[in-house]
Amino acid sequence: MNNAIGLAILTLGVGLTAGFGAALSPEFRSSLLMDGQVELATRRVSDTFAAYCDARAAFNLADADGCGTSSPVPASTAAALAQLEASEEVLRVQPTQARVEYRIALSRLLEVEQLRLDDGVQGPGERLTGWVSAGGLGFGVGWLLMLVGGWICRGAASAPVNRGADGAQAVDFGCLLDDVHASIAALAEDMAAHAHPTTDDADACKDRLHAIQSDSLARLCGSGRGIQAQYGLEGMAMVFSPLSASERKLNRAWAALVDRHWPEALTSLQAAAQDLADTREALRALQASA
Amino acid sequence: MTEDTPTALPMTGPEYRELTAAAVVFGVLIGAVMTAAFTYVALKLGFTLSGSTVAAILGFAVLRGVLRRGSIIENNINQTVASGVNTASAGVAFTLPALYIMGEDFNVWSVVVAAVAGAFLGMVVIIPLRKQMIELERLRFPSGIAVASLLRSPGAGARQAKLLLGGFAVSASIHLATGLGVLPEELNFGLWMGLPAWVSLSIAVSFASLGAGMLSGRGGLPFVFGGMLAWWLIAPVAVTAGLVPTVAEMTAIRSHSGYDEWVTWDVLYGQMLRPLGIGILIGGALSGVVASFPALKSAVTSLRNASRTGGGGSDELPIQVLTGGIGVAFLVLFGAAVMADPSLGVGRQLLIAVVGTVWLALAGLIVAQATGMTDISPMSGMSLIGVTLMFFLSGGNVVPAIILGVAVCIGIGQCADMMGDLKSGHLIGAKPKKQQLAQLMVCWVGVPVAVGTVVLLWGDGGGFGPGNAELSAPQGTALAAIMESLRAGAAPLDKYVAGGAIGLGLGLHPVGGLGVLIGLAMYLPFNITVTYGLGCAANLWLVRARGERWIGDTLVPVAAGFIIGEALTSLGVVLFQLAAG
Fold it and tell me: What is the pTM of this model?
């Protein structure tokens, strides 16, 4: 229940902080408005220019004003507009209309470019202070909610420590660990007893090992959060360091059996059994100190 | 690998093959070829490809098929080496071209020195994080699982091999169809329903993302939540409430066509969500370091124990490699800062080297965590922050900023790559010490290959960049544009600060990595998140319906096939596009 409440408060907090965090200061918003106008006006210029060139081509007019093979349009908008306005070429209606559209688009682009120049660029410090004054309060409230929600969830997650005075979870983990250890030790003993192993023996051992890995070891390795809740992160690290090492060595034993390298498989299994014994010791030490 | 008649197995003989000359030499060869090829691909198309899967398959074919002597673990070393060499392709191709495009005068050897330092730094900072991320946090690293499934396939049985191949076939067919334009790259339901672009209702047609979600399961859900928060709440509210420039305000233009696209990608994504996501990633990673301090302490203790036993009896690299490696790499980075701009002054050059080292370690942690949890790497965002930091520390000097940015980018790539390879290694039982030694030996090799490729392609000038139809160098062009905007004084500090605070606050929640997942979701376009989320939902449903064992035996090989199929088909499609001009 506490976890659900904490999660709800945390979600609300994240929503508020992300929303207000993403907000733009009024100054930066107006600067973006200028950028947007320039961006869309530039696109409009490209479209009208393409339409103008198409119209010229449709009426078989000679290339001019940057169309086709004529000299390219000047880079600056003002120069491009001046060049177009200086032209005295008389055209038929449709190309004329296209040229007018193009000229209007150029003059609008020039206007917004000038506005943007006047507007200037906001530096990082200005952006930060602008954002704090625009969305800082909402962000702060959201952040506090986020902390409260996180704190409640943290308390709920550590609740098993208080509840589990009987150590039920640790016993389950310990029992499973003993089972895995016994199975691996037995498999290692059986393998050691083979004086002349064959490929069939390797396959049989591999299948036995795979069954232990997928049935019990996977459950054991998947219970880290429970151990962490019970003994803290440091305690979990003490148990999971040898446990993970044994998991890796069992994987190595499996690979060596596939590769038909019996001695390596046997050595890895024995080392894994020792790591499982170390895991048991670490768990015992934790239980004793709890 | 079942023989018809049982044969006796040798009880003595050669050691189990692991770190062998054949694996290293062949890995370097594959890696060098991939580095040159992928650098070219990055300059042409703007992205590179992961080398692990390609290397695993090639290693498989040569070491086991042709030489008939490779072990599963030797293949892992080969793939670790090849992908470690190839890491340089992205790091160099995304950053160095910007210096050429901007027409800057620089010493190319300073780039090589910085990049080599970055590669070594990336390698050594990951040493204590292996235990933390793979053994304690048990992050998924979906691509690492996919490569391990591939390496394990000779012994996993016919059923799992069929599932892997089936997943591969489905994913490869679909990706081929999207790559050739037969199928769309996304299913844009919003567009079909006539919704504006800022109401994101689209799904990326990517079986690799689906497979990554299927391998992540419940752990990936906060990622989906972050995406929904960004694109289903913040974006529509911001537009409809007029928090961003509205269409009615576009007074200076007559036609408003293109407004939706502009406000979605340039404003909502580019100015709000992406920088906020980067900030959350950084804050989340910082709080993660604080929260997992006891586990990190345990990892460092384990390394100290390895040193006491001389390293020989342990599978860990000794702590001296970490401390010595950081020290040497820091000195080389300082040397690169001196070479990049001798006029900066010793104090500033030292500061650049210190901040570069610290940032590389933190960014490496972020990228490794993000790939571990979702298989998605925010490398470009972390490199961008690195370049921005260097830009301000160097007093607005572009050359040292980008040169040190190359080092950071390569180092971050090394972290993510090494961690994925270590995950594969864990799943097949490789010794981490041998994997790390192998990659330490060769991590510098890709640098001269990638830098040389860029220098050769630039030629006498104008070999790539905007306006070049053959090689437009999209990432380098984008970085050059960002550097120009930084020169003009623009940097979204407000969003980084807000995001950082959110990430730090999320660190209080007991589930680790929340900040990284939510930040990553805001950093990415939503269609990828949705596909990934569908994979997570499928995993949750199947766990409930079929149980955990079924997931391991059936879902994992299928999902691995999805990831491998898309990775290899991407390479095929790129080769086809290059051949077709």
Answer: 0.85
